[in-house]
From TrEMBL:
Taxonomic path: Eukaryota, Fungi, Dikarya, Ascomycota, Taphrinomycotina
Keyword terms of this UniProt record: Membrane, Repeat, Transmembrane, Transmembrane helix, Transport
InterPro entries linked: MannP-dilichol_defect-1, PQ-loop_rpt
Membrane topology, from the record: Multi-pass membrane protein
Protein name in UniProt: Mannose-P-dolichol utilization defect 1 protein homolog
């Protein structure tokens, strides 16, 4: 900014020597006035920043301590919060990544609520692939168990817990509305057994859990395929929630950034990248089949017209 101002100053001053005396005087006075305005603005910014710093440096511990915990770096907390130094690129990237992570966890806590409400209000499971939800829930439970037993911060995997809980509700509702109550009962028992095996030290060994964690990528990716096929077959998204589908795409895109910034693990990166691709396909289907009726319903309507 200051370099640009210097260039402008040089240009204006040079111009004044190539013009008439009156115009020189006018240009010079305009230039001086602009410099005065720039000085006043810079002074106002500096004063405002000093006032803000006096507050950020005096934040109480119940705000400061969680913020440091979320950032995971006292140095970056001091740079970004206390000194308001947004030229610190490394800490700024970390701060953005942490903010995205917290946002993903918060979004994950409600992402499937519209889907649950849509199922309850319609009393139908049309367009819902139970297999997709079972596979996705399996992947989330394995990831959740792995992170808990590793003792990782909740902010790095919290959405897995919230989405898994919501998926269980959706699966049970879909089975109930599909008149498969016995399958719903088996599902509850299977989930209970899985929770014990994954979270209890008396369950599977950690080495086995590590192996299962490597399988979550194909499981998670495979969970999208049945849903994509169901939509394509029905030519309709049925009771699938647009809010959930769009938020999945946004969340997976954000996780790519947080992985590159904080983890830099190729396995996790490619998992999120492939997941983003399949989420993009679901979004494309959601847009293409928006307000479309299921193929079976359309055929029935055509038969009635023919009669």
């Amino acid at each position: 900014m200051r370099l640009q101002n210097q260039r402008d100053s040089t240009y204006i001053l040079k111009t004044t020597y190539d013009t008439s005396p009156d115009l020189q005087s006018f240009l010079l006075s305009e230039h001086i006035e602009s410099l005065q305005n720039i000085y006043l603005v810079n002074r106002w910014i500096d004063t405002s920043m000093d006032i803000l710093k006096s507050y950020t440096r005096a934040l109480p511990s119940f705000i400061k301590d969680p913020a440091i915990s979320i950032l995971g770096s006292q140095k970056c907390y001091k740079s970004l919060v206390e000194d308001l130094n947004y030229n610190d690129i490394a800490c700024l990237k970390l701060g953005v990544s942490k903010a995205l992570g917290v946002g993903i966890v918060a979004g994950g806590s409600i992402v499937k609520v519209p889907q649950i409400l849509k199922l309850v209000n319609s009393g139908s499971s049309a367009g819902i692939s139970v297999l997709s939800y079972i596979l996705e829930t399996t992947a989330f439970l394995i990831t959740l168990g792995y992170n808990v037993r590793q003792g990782f911060p909740f902010s790095t995997y919290g959405e897995s817990a919230f989405i898994a809980i919501q998926n269980v509700f959706i699966t049970l509702l879909a089975l109930h509305y599909g008149k498969q109550n016995s399958a719903a009962a088996v599902t509850v028992v299977a989930i209970g057994a899985a929770l014990y095996a994954l979270f209890s030290h008396g369950g599977i060994t950690f080495q086995t859990l590590q192996y299962l964690q490597t399988l979550t990528i194909p499981i998670a990716l495979g969970s999208k395929i049945p849903q994509i096929f169901t939509i394509f077959k029905n030519k309709s998204t049925g009771q699938l929630s647009a809010f959930a589908v769009f938020n999945y795409l946004i969340g997976s895109l954000a996780r790519i950034y947080t992985t590159v910034t904080e983890v830099n693990d190729p396995l996790i990166f490619w998992g999120f990248l492939l997941s983003t691709g399949l989420n993009a396909v679901l979004v494309a289907q959601m847009l293409y089949y928006w307000n479309s009726k299921p193929a079976s319903a359309q055929r029935l309507k055509n038969k009635k017209k023919a009669i």
